[in-house]
Design a protein that fits this description.
alpha/beta, six-stranded mixed beta sheet, 1 helix, globular
Amino acid sequence: MCYSVYLSTTSSEDLSKRSSDWVRFEKLEKTPDASYADRLAFPNRWYVGSKSGCSCTFRHLFRLSIELGFSEPVDWYPEGSDEIEATKELYAVLAHFTSGGFEVDLIDDWGSTPPEALATVEVSLSDVSAGAFRLFEDHRFIFKK
């Protein structure tokens, strides 16, 4: 199985121009019925891939470890430098939207929770640094400035 990350925003910016070696954005024109991407709230929708092609090369917390919350990398929870760099780049895009006054949400899909049962987390990027930011498996994030 692979992670799939989906993002939606009120910004009409072409995110494919922000693609890099670490983060890749692919416009979602249509999504299958009842998919995770259909749980996104805003009209401009994107698949967010990583260096691996899928969305696996980001910092993810497993569904059963969510209580750990946001945190800088620690020795006892090994994470690769690729995951750390990719997540920082994703954070920069999220911060760009929120600081510009745009609405943005994101889903981190592992597929172990039905789309309608995804937990929602509101995140203020003013309270969470780029180094501490990570994704929570099978959660929908709503980002605030």
